């Protein structure tokens, strides 16, 4: 969580009119900051490449041992979430105005799969009911 917040602060575009927004729900935390990625999102997910906007913030965070300036933020976050057995964090870039949003699910991947299976079973049952009504009404 600390890494996600540090990343949002370090990579935010403070010249944009919209600020950093953190939202918490029982099942997820969403961190949205102004600005788009300055490198390819896939490179960001792999790690090892860093192109931050705010060098002074990086230096300040380094003084308190937060962040590494190694481009390892998102891979580190994803690794922690995987070790916890939680769903994979989601990264979304929006443009005009530029905004990057990181959603951190706080529920187990198994629970998400179970909910999906339950939802599909309900849809399947509804389709079968429609099919039966159609068959018997003809």
Write structural notes for this entry.
48% of the residues lie in helices and 17% in strands. It has helices spanning 2-11, 41-46, 55-63, 73-84, 109-137, and strands at residues 21-25, 28-34, 90-94, 99-105. The chain is built from 5 helices and 4 strands, in the order H-E-E-H-H-H-E-E-H. 14% of the residues are buried. A 4-stranded antiparallel sheet has the order 1-2-4-3, with helices on one face. It has 138 residues and is of the alpha+beta class. The mean pLDDT is 81.
Rg result: 20 Å
Number of helices: 5
- Spatial strand arrangement across the major sheet: 1-2-4-3
Structural class: alpha+beta
- Largest sheet, if any? 4 strands, antiparallel
Please give the share of residues in helix.
Answer: 40-55%
Using the alpha-carbon principal axes, give the shape: elongated
* Number of β-strand runs: 4
The secondary-structure element order is: HEEHHHEEH
Tell me the strand percentage band: 15-25%
Give the terminus-to-terminus CA distance: 59 Å
Extract low-pLDDT stretches.
Answer: none
* Overall average residue pLDDT: 81
Layout of strands and helices, then pairs:
Blueprint: H1 2-11, E1 21-25, E2 28-34, H2 41-46, H3 55-63, H4 73-84, E3 90-94, E4 99-105, H5 109-137
Antiparallel strand pairs: 1-2, 2-4, 3-4
Gist of the model:
The chain has helices spanning 2-11, 41-46, 55-63, 73-84, 109-137, and strands spanning 21-25, 28-34, 90-94, 99-105. The chain has 138 residues and is of the alpha+beta class.
